[in-house]
Every structure is written in structure tokens, then in C-alpha cells.
Amino acid sequence: MRVHELARELGWTSRQLLAELSRRGEFVKSAAIQLEAPVVRAIRQQFSSVGEPDPDATVAPAMYGRSAESLADEDVTGFAEALAKAKAQSKAKGQKKGAQWRPPVLQVLLDEVIVPQRPDHLDPPAGGYFAWEMKKAA
Q1: 58 in a domain, yes or no?
Q2: 132: domain range?
Q3: What are phi and psi of 44, to 5 degrees?
Q4: What is the tens place of the pLDDT at every residue in 41-62?
Q5: I need a labelling partner for 90 at 20 to 30 A (CA). Which of 17, 19, 38, 128 fits?
Q6: What span, in angstroms and rounded, lies between the C-alpha atoms of 37 and 60?
């Protein structure tokens, strides 16, 4: 927000707001300068009318997207509890991971062209494909 916009919002002149900003130690030369959000928030809190609601307090959690909804439902109070919950939901060590997604063209090349050329004396690898097969397909 620019200095002159904030001054108009507060009902001040730009010079009055520039003087207040310089008193606070902010380096502002003109009324066209863009102010940082924490500075605007502090000035609004100190000088806005008592009857006006705080704009930050009236933001609905839905505006933050799905992450805010999921956090609002959970009752996690600290980092340690959140970490323990995430570890409990993750797969146990040694448990086979799900199949890795590959582009359809690469998957067809692997299954129809490269794997049939695999030497018979080699056992199939645990992951489904050898590294050299993946490199050849790519």
C-alpha cells in the first residue's frame, strides 16, 4: 500500500503520515513509496478507529484453501505431536512402495520392447526394471 493511500484511509495528509513514519525510523522519501505490510498493519492498529474491525482478524479460514480446513479439523498443539502423527501415518520401513508413475510412452517401451529383450539368465529385479532398462527406455 502506498503512503498516500494509507494517509487517505486514516484521514491524514501525506505529510503527517510521512512525519509519523520518519518518527518510527522508516526511510520514506515521498507519498508514492510502497509501504511494507508489517508497517501498514502497525499504523492501522495504532491509529485506526476503535469501531473498525482488524482486517487480518476478519479473514475467513476458507480463504487459505484446503490446508487451513485440514488443520482446523485436527487437534494438534505442537510440533512434536504433529511429527508423531505424520510418522504414524507413513508406511513402515521395508514395506513395498507403490508403483512409480511413468509416462505412458515410456511404460509401453519398457513392457513391449525392452523387457522382452532381457536375457533369460537374469532374474527380474525387485523394482520391476533394471537401471539400464530405464536408461535405454528414456
Answers
A1: yes
A2: 104-137
A3: -60, -45
A4: 988 888 876 545 555 555 566 6
A5: 128
A6: 19
